[in-house]
Structures are given as C-alpha cells and as structure tokens.
Amino acid sequence: MKLDPSDPTPPPSPLPRTTRATLLWRFALGAVLGLFLHYLLYRISLPIEPFIYVAF
Amino acid sequence: MRSRLPTLALLAGLIAGFGLAVFFGAAAESYSKPDRFKRFHPFISPESLFYPTFSSLETLALARWHRGQTLVIIGGNSVLNGVGQPEDRLWSLRLQELLGPDFVVVNLSFRGAFPSEAGALVAESLLRRDVPVIYVANTSPGGVVRAFEGFYRHFFWAARARHALHDWPVREKDLAFRLASLPEVKRHEREEEMRGAALDRWFHFQALWQHVAYRYAFTVWNRVTGNASLRPRDTFPDDEAAPPPVAERFGPNLTREMEIVRSVTAPLATPSANDGWTVDATRLASAGDDLEKTFPPSLRPRMLMLLSQNSPYHRAQLTAAERARDDAVFAAYAALWREHGIASAIYGTDFAVEDFRDRTHLTPSGGDRLAALVAREIRALSAQNR
C-alpha cells in the first residue's frame, strides 16, 4: 500500500498471528470459565450431606 | 484498543460459554428418559445428592401420557415408592396392569416425602394444563406438611418460580405467614432457596448438570455411592432386594418400632367416659385447616389419600384399648379428608402379616393388594370426574 506523506496517521496493521492465538486462547478460557460459573450455580445449591443422614 | 482485546475476548468467551450452558440446560429440561423409568430409587433421588428437577418430573409424566388417557400420578413416601418390593414387583406396575390402557400410571414418590410434595405439584401443574390427572399419595393421621416445608421443598420453589402452579392467594398468604414465623436463620435459608429457584428458571443449571450427572458423570462425592460417586447415575440399578423370610422381618428394633406405632395415634385421642376414645377436636380442626391451605380446590376431587396402617404383626402387640384408639383415629382422619373433598381409604387393616416387609412397608403380595384397592378407588374417582 502506498503511504500518503501528508497523512500523519499510520495505517492499521493486520493482527499478528501471536495476537490472534492469544485472543483465541482467551476466548476459550472465557468459555470454560463461563461453563464453570454455570456449574457453580448448580454446585452451591447442593447440600453438603444427603438430607437422609441429617434428618434420620 | 488492541490492549483491551484480550480482556474483551475473555469476556466474550465467558458469555458464550455460559450462554451455551444455558442453551443445553433448556434442552435438558425436556429430557424424558429413562424409557424404563419405574420409580425414583435411592441412586436417582436426593438421598444420594441427585436432584431430579421439577421439569423432569413433569416431562416423565407427560412423555408417557396420550390424549384420551387419565394420568395417574403416585406421590407420597417410601411406602408408595415400593420399599420392600423389587423393581419388577413394584406395586404401581401391578396397578397399571389392573387399570389397563385407559390410564397411565407414573410413580413420582420419594422416600421421606410428604403427600403435598413432588407428585402433588406435578399433578396440579398438569391439571392446570388440562391433562386429566388423578393423584394418589399416602400419609398417617395428623397434620399435613406444606410442600414448602418438607425435604423436597425444592420442587415447590421450582414450580412456583416457573409459574407452573395455580394462582392461589390462600397458599401465597400461608407461605408468607409461615416464612415470617420461622427463626431468622431458617427464613434466610428459605429465601436463598427461592432465589436459587428463580435463577434456575432462567439459567437452567439444575437441568443441565443433573442431566450430565445422570448420563455422563456425577461430580460430587457422597456417602451413599462412596467410591462409585463419579459414575453416571443411569448405570446404577434399582437394587431393592426381595424381603427376607417372615421370621426375620419384625424382630429387629421391635421396642422402638412399637413406640412409633403407638405415637401415630396416642397424641390424637383421649379416653372417653364409656371406655371408648375421643379424637382430639382441636388437632382434627388444625389438620383440616392444613388441608384447606395445602391442596388447591381444583385438585381435591382428583385425589386419593391412602392412610397407611401399621403391619398386623405390630398391631397385634397393642392392647385392645390401643387398637380401638388406632381404629377411632384412623376413621376420624379418613372422614376428615373426605369432608374436605378428597377421597380417602385406609389400607393394611385387613392385610396379612406376610404382606408387610416391616412395620410399614409392603412386600410384593402387599403391593398387589394395595394395587387392587387403589384401582377400585381410581375407577370410582374417574367416573365421578367425567
């Protein structure tokens, strides 16, 4: 691409491969965390002991 | 902008992961397996930390029903859950045989459940959706525990959060009153349970992870499953054993068992002048009030409440006066249920010793007798409700 000498703003450069990989890995990590958060909602609603050992 | 991209990617992944879980949870709500479902045995019930959802109970029932049939929902406790009966001799299977194809019987009872819990809520919900239901449960003489006060109250919270139940101001007022009467710690506990149910309505976490626990892997160690805790629950069999020989059934803990037998009716009646018994009117009225606030009027004509007598072996250990008290109290409470529009029947009084596995649970032969009685009552109820 030919640079316009009168335009001081540098052109945007495409994301390097390492940055794309980082973003993908961050997204995947976020997805796992999201799934884990969903699991936590289930897990915290469970009693510690089955009620039958507490009540009987 | 670029320096924020990794954070935004993380956030986008979080939302996507959570959203995907919600999506699969919503799909799991309509899971109607297992095809071979017969009852909630200990490995697929809260006894072992497996909590079937309210939706799964509804779906289990609906998946087996076809238009033109009457759906018979069995609720109640371990007696109707068939403790003492191996899976292939379960009394509700015999009931299905006796009733024939015009009815479909689904056993939604749980050990330790009260008649207002689980199956009662499913019956109410499906009746509201114009499914012809008959609800059968069991109890003892005495008061009626509310659906939001028992071990299985999570079904009530879930059904309420989903607006599955009748809009019934009497119950809402009763709930508010009884919550306000609780000690602070218990009240906060209940409020947290309600909040959890409200969240679950939108995020379906119970449905998804119970489904995973059932099909793929359970993720919580517990005493009941022990070293097999991680196994998926559909690999656990219904291992209810056949009852031992009669001679071995009733001896263990007889003293304690007889205390229980006497305690069923002793608080509910006082000796009267003519060597008879007077059933305590205050307790009777209180039980009537419980009924009025627990079972919605639309469900009552479609209910059968079984009053569970103790085994003949244990009743034979009572004095004549104690047996007379038993008879008087059972008769009075059976009449009470009927006065409030709910059919009731006492069973066990004319059963044989062999029909009981212990003080209260029935053997396969006892289950067959119970099925015959219940089938008669259901036919009568069904005719009345046409």
Could you walk me through the main structural features you see in this protein, from its secondary elements to its overall organization?
The complex is a heterodimer of chains A (56) and B (386). The mean pLDDT of chain A is 77. With 56 residues, chain A is an all-alpha fold. Chain A is 57% helix and 0% strand. Chain A contains two helices and no strands. Chain A is rod-shaped and about 80 Å long. With 386 residues, chain B is of the alpha/beta class. In chain B, helix 3 links the parallel strand 1 and strand 2. Classes of the chains: A mainly alpha (56), B alpha/beta (386). At the A-B interface, helix 1 and helix 2 of A face helix 1, helix 7 and helix 8 of B.
Key phrases:
heterodimer, A: 56 residues, mainly alpha, 2 helices, B: 386 residues, alpha/beta, 5-stranded parallel beta sheet, two-stranded antiparallel sheet
What's the rounded overall pLDDT mean of chain A?
Answer: 77
Order of helices and strands of chain B: HHEHEHEHHHHHEEHEHHEH
Outline type of chain B: globular
N-C termini distance of chain A: 79 Å
What is the CA-based Rg of chain A, rounded? Answer: 26 Å
Strand fraction of chain A: under 5%
Structural class of chain A: mainly alpha
Helix content of chain A: 55-70%
Largest sheet of chain A: none
- Quaternary state of this entry equals heterodimer
Give the structure's gist in a few sentences.
The complex is a heterodimer of chains A (56) and B (386). Chain A has 56 residues and is mainly α.
Write the layout of secondary structure elements.
The complex is a heterodimer of chains A (56) and B (386).
Chain A: H1 17-43, H2 51-55
Chain B: H1 5-28, H2 54-63, E1 70-74, H3 91-99, E2 103-107, H4 119-128, E3 133-139, H5 153-161, H6 169-180, H7 184-203, H8 205-215, H9 254-265, E4 269-271, E5 277-279, H10 281-294, E6 303-308, H11 312-315, H12 320-339, E7 343-347, H13 364-384
Parallel strand pairs in B: 1-2, 1-3, 3-6, 6-7
Antiparallel strand pairs in B: 4-5
